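During the first year of the project, the team set up a workflow for recording each protein of interest as an amino acid sequence followed immediately by a discrete structure-token representation. This format lets reviewers and collaborators read both layers of information side by side without switching files. As required by the reporting guidelines, we include two representative entries from the current panel. The first entry is reproduced here exactly as it appears in our internal archive.
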Amino acid sequence: MQALVCCLMCAALAWPVQGQAQEHERAPSQAPLAEPPDYRSAIESAVDEYELGNFAEARSQFQRAHELYPNARSWRGMGMTEFELRNYPDAIDHLERALACEIKPLSESLRRETEWLLERARGYVARVTLRLEPRDASVTLDGVPLEPAQRDVLLLAVGDHTLEFRALNCQTEKRNIKVTGGEQRTLQVSLRDEATLREGRRWYKNPWLWTAAGVVVAGAATGIAIATARPDSELARPQGGTTGISLAGPP
């Protein structure tokens, strides 16, 4: 009996420790339940810089606050600064996240303002849907490699852009895109196999092929020359038609 009581006491003491360990394991993947000590000062600094028109500095402070405590308000602040810096694809991404985030969610008035700004940002980009073969081809946008998750739909800011596509044993291909803003398009890219291209080049450069082609051309030229060398009387001789009617009349 005493041994049973001892076991129960040990289990009771161990249970809170186990619960704390599980809570500690979950904490890194979840946002803090309350604002960390430095979060408020970072937000206030970001707002001050934004109101002064120092948008790069404001973005830095909003990012610092977001790292401490990611929430809808910090997403919105970063989206607003990206918009002012004319980084419209990033502005769209951040503003969409702000509207979807449930941590410190936006009030109705802030949601309306955010949706209005989001629509403005969408008017300054092109939405390009990629249809790529092979699917595992790498994509570079203006010299910057894109992650696989970024390749299906591209948001391109107004201006000229260069897309480059590479795949193993395939010919590299480049596409130039000019964006005026607000357009939506689908880009189909099928990279050609290098082995097939090499085979085609060998066929194209085959000397026997061009020798045979030369004989055909020479024969055609000889036939034309013979036809043009016929006497006028022979060329003027009437030829039989297919109507069955003779112009000479009855015999």
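The second entry, processed by the same pipeline in the following quarter, appears below.
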Amino acid sequence: MAQVTFVVATYRRADALRSTLRSVCGQTHGDWTALVVGDACGDETAEAVRSLKDPRIRYYNLPERFGEQSGPNSAGLHMAKGDHVVFLNHDDLLLPDHLARMLEHDADVCFGRFATATRIEKGEPVFTETGPRATHLSALFGSSPWAFDPSSFWLVRTAYAKAVGPWRRAAEVWRTPLRGACAVASGSPGRSPGCAS
């Protein structure tokens, strides 16, 4: 069975983090660990992790604030072990079969489907967009600054991710990182032919 490491960068979102980690605990593929990397968080983050009482979830808190998720993601990648890594945003949720369906594909990088909820009506999320819109890797490198490609729904071979190296700061990349989206994985992975091994 493939072993997956979730890397979850977090800062001051204990309630959202708790919900995200519950969705990880509910995965039908049970061979995973979650490395929650706090960006110099307060005690409420450690308590949110402890409250789940799952030994597969480990919490590391950076001693100094990095100021964006590239630092915690890089720290988590450095610690990641096993076959695959997922960089799960601390406010994203996964359907129970997300990992199982992603692992059906034999690729260095696999992109899962997702849905975006931008508002709540009558207590229910309203989904306004699904993605990715295309199944080929080249779609991620187009000229549109509005492209939406949250790393929460990528499954990457750990060796491949480590060969690529640490995450770069947002100021060093050409497209603004995704911020503030609430996404729910549909559990229907899309495979990018441009990055299959």
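For the second entry, the following points were noted during internal review. The longest helix spans residues 14-25. The chain has a mean pLDDT of 81. Both points are flagged for discussion at the upcoming steering committee meeting.
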